[in-house]
Amino acid sequence: MKRQARSRILLTIICFIFGAMLGFSYQHASKEASRRGWKDGEWSKEYEYRSALLSLQKENRSLKQQLVQKQEELAAWEKKLSKKQESEAGLAEEAKQLRMYIGKARVKGKGVAVTLSDSSYIPSEASATDYIVHEQHVWSVVHELFISGAEAVAINGQRISHRSYIVCNGPVIEVDGTPHAAPFVISAIGNPDVLASALGLPGGVVDQLVEDHVDVKVEKQEAIVLDPIFAPKP
Description:
Keywords: Coiled coil, RNA-binding. With 234 residues, the protein is an alpha+beta fold.
């Protein structure tokens, strides 16, 4: 009986120890599996994050390339627009100069005023017509002013153009059909120094007029205003 009891006790102890070992092994295996499973999930998330980051970087590079392309296109359009504006500005200035040349625009600027008057002294034995201003005298001044760079010219305030005509009609001259009596003030817009110098050259227009007994006065002016041709007067 004692031997059997001891055998039972020993068997019980062995079973207890074996059961404890199995329990410990199960718990350890469960923990290890849980630990490994958590690390696998974490790595999976990190992989997803890295993949998303690489995708964003690739998309960012693509957007930067598109931005550079758009900036180049914009620069090309700006250059094209600038050339167009320069061209339009040039055409506008050309149109302005043309209107000024044909007398269709009111102009203001520096220039000269040339006054031609009949001679103040007429000998009794001479003909009076030899001492008055004639159409050729006015034309000589107008022509010299234009070839010297005058932008606009007027006679007694009446603008003239390349189509204008001047004729004598008794004691007066007619400018495009409008009569004017002496003295004749020929106003011209342009460089005052150049215009005055051109008129005053030795043997030039002024000397010829004086030789023809015409009183001549040339004045530089800072502000001359010339109305358009056929502009209505207030």
